[in-house]
Amino acid sequence: MTHDTSPTLIPVPAEWARRAKIDAETYTLKYRQSVDDPHAFWAEELKRIDWIKAPTEISDVSWSKDDLHIRWFADGVLNACYNCVDRHLPARQNDVAIIWEGDDPSMDRKVTYGQLHDEVRRFANVLKDMGVKKGDRVTIYLPMIVEAAYAMLACARIGAVHSVVFGGFSPDSIAGRIEDCRSEWVITANEGLRGGKTIALKHNVDKALEKVSGVKGVLVVRHTRASVAMNVGRDQWYDNVAARVDLECPCEPMQAEDPLFILYTSGSTGKPKGVLHTTGGYLVWASMTHEYVFDYRPGEIYWCTADVGWVTGHTYIVYGPLANGATTLMFEGIPTYPGPDRFWQIIDKHKVEIFYTAPTAIRALERLGDAHVKKHSRKSLRLLGTVGEPINPAAWTWYWDVVGDRRCPVVDTWWQTETGGALITPLPGATDLKPGSASTPMFGIQPDLVDADGKFLKGAASGNLVLKTSWPGQMRTVYGDHQRFIDTYFSTYPGLYFTGDGARRDADGYWWITGRVDDVINVSGHRLGTAEVESALVAHPKVAEAAVVGFPHDIKGQGIYCYVTVNQDVEPDEMLEAELRQWVRDDIGPIASPDAIQFAPALPKTRSGKIMRRILRKIAEGELNNLGDTTTLADPGVVEDLLANRKSA
Ligand code: WT7
Fold it and tell me: Is residue 408 predicted with pLDDT exceeding 90?
């Protein structure tokens, strides 16, 4: 995917060097200060937030396994909703906060900061009316409608902790997430809409709640005309309650380290973990990175195409932009509905200036041909961004050439759910670009490379990507399982945060992220643990054993390849294959749909019974002549069969 030498270097366009908030010289100075004197750097940056009580403490961090704690701005008091809404009033009362564009192109609306203030206060009072209290966990399972932002901000306003679950997840996945954080409240909609199809959100919640107890109230936003079953005493329509509550709703003063949200993400083992972000540090990081990475100024139209169900939606649709008083566009639909030019049509319709999307979308749209793009002027665009997975230089170049007409810098932002916001990324007025490279670290970020033994690699090298020091947006713990937090991120290389990614640092000090080095796969920018798919498969009554690996996929980045051994009396056939595919979709959600299922009489194992995933990965990747050492296999014959029956996906 990446080149060893980088022939292309795209210098900062002159007009960007002139107008940008951060030019090359400022970047160097500020970066140095952020690393050499973090106290001074953050004492200045924290002023971007309105504090009820300004912090005097900057950070108190230990990454030692025996005493792991991460605290930023700990004696500060603030409210995140106040910072995203109230503080922009009255000056920006009539400025547009959210542009909503529906799945149906004839549906859109604009919400000003003044209206947002009303809607969020109303929503917060509805939550209070239901019985939601400070510290309660509220599960949000909503489509991309403005109410999703209202719901998140309303939680923040009253000090409740939201846990947004992506609308593409199954009832089982919702149930698991509700159970893990013992959430008593769920906010959903009757239905979602995507690409002209409806999604039975309320029905999914009902099914989830058959499996988990303890939920006291379900609030249902009326989005489509569909009527849905309402469980009396538990379920209420949002609009019914909203009609009877007040507008007045004060912001709850929160300690900087009070939780703001939980967001579940997949790891290399076990169930998804509840990544916990707290209030002060996260908001400083979200606001700072949104401003600098996108060189954002109030009044500009900014569009991040992510879903609020992922961290990108949290930080770069809701919290970052709104903290900065931005106009943020929320799109309910998909890039190819009703036509393959939907993105470009929306850009022209709303005069989008900053556009942030994922490599998988870029590759899919590139494949549909340039004509769909060129049909629209895109002249409002001035900056392009990408996130979620490595972007191959060819896709980068198409984005730059065709979408941006070689005018718009492309910022390839590397980060993770765990990091709260972008950590390695170009700044458009400061960084000369290399197609395919996330380039240089954000302020306060000290990446490095280690080999398998934890030895630091010097100069141009490839290895495992670690971070040496904390930053305000770092996750604080795995909700309810601090030990898992320590084990996952701080035990592989003591004293360092291990990202799970592999990377290369080139001779200019630019970073090239090469992808996960653990058992996490990234399918169309959606993160999945191979262990989750395996556990779904082995739960099927006909399956004895399963091993799941990722393989390179032209559009999705990675695809899901499953090796399945069936029970003795079972004859595997195409029907079973289809059944298993549906089974996994039902268990996790459509994003986990296997691309290939290969039935195997046995899986390659060591003599101690450990599955040799390396071999399975090679076969799935099609690297058949390069399987590596197979002499430690208990039964080398197993590999012959795997090779003979390989599926091309
Ligand atoms: C993993 C994190 C960041 C928000 C969306 C995904 C991969 C993310 C890039 C990029 C190469 C990237 C990494 C990372 N990733 N951005 N610009 N270049 N890889 O968040 O679901 O927590 O996934 O996505 O592998 O570890 P996530």
Answer: yes
Q: What would the pLDDT profile of 151-206 be if each residue is shown by its tens digit?
A: 999 999 999 999 999 999 999 999 999 999 999 999 999 999 999 999 999 999 99
Pairwise CA distance, residues 43 & 56, whole Å: 8
Measured CA to CA, the distance from residue 178 to residue 169 in angstroms comes to 13
pTM over 0.90: yes
Q: What is the pLDDT of residue 1?
A: 42
Tell me how crowded residue 135 is: count the other CB atoms within 10 A of its CB: 12
Q: Is the dihedral of CA 355, 358, 361, 366 positive or negative?
A: positive
- Residue minimizing CA distance to atom 27 of ligand 1: 416
Q: Which residues line ligand 1 (CB under 6 A)?
A: 265, 310-312, 387-390, 412-417, 438, 499-501, 513, 515-516, 522, 527
What are the tokens at 234? 């538990």
CA distance 383 to 156: 30
Report the phi/psi class of residue 408: left, alpha or beta, with left for phi > 0 and alpha for psi in -120 to 50: beta
pLDDT of residue 341: 98
| Ordered alpha helix ranges (H), 159-226 | 171-180, 201-209
Residue 518: CB atoms within 10 A of its CB come to 18
335, 342 contact by CB (below 8 A): yes
389 alpha carbon to ligand 1 midpoint, in Å?
5
Tabulate helix, strand, coil % of the chain (nearest 5): 30, 25, 45
